[in-house]
Amino acid sequence: ALSLTGPDWVGGERWEIAPEDLVETLDTLDTIEGYKGGTDDLYRRRQVECHDEDGSVHHAYVYECAQPHRLDEANRIPPTADGVSHWIVD
User: Are strands 9-11 and 2-4 parallel, antiparallel or unpaired?
Assistant: First the structure.
């Protein structure tokens, strides 16, 4: 799935979670991402519109940086020829 949350498209995975498992799944992911809804969290969870490669549109939860000033220290991953920024996995 692709979502546009800034100047670049960012490649990712879209998982479908059964509605009855959503609360428990989000609680677990919140713990992994350190999201508590506080002002000092590194990430915040929000819903965004995402576009699959086939053009279908969905709504998905994402974790985005809640402390944008820390992005100044990060290396930007530039888009590839397809216009999408892909995470590099070693």
Answer: antiparallel
One-letter amino acid identity for 86?
Answer: H
Q: pLDDT tens for residues 4-27?
A: 456 677 788 889 999 999 999 999
Q: Locate tokens 């969870």: which residue?
A: 45
Question: Measured between alpha carbons, how far is 63 from 80 in angstroms, rounded to an integer?
Answer: 22
- Token reading at 33: 């991402």
What string of DSSP letters covers the chain? -EEESSSSEEE-------GGGHHHHHHHHHHHHT--S-TT-SEEEEEEEEE-TTS-EEEEEEEEES-GGGGGGSPP----TTSEE-----
Model confidence pLDDT, tens digit, residues 34-68 = 899 888 898 899 998 888 888 899 999 988 888 87
pTM of the model: 0.70
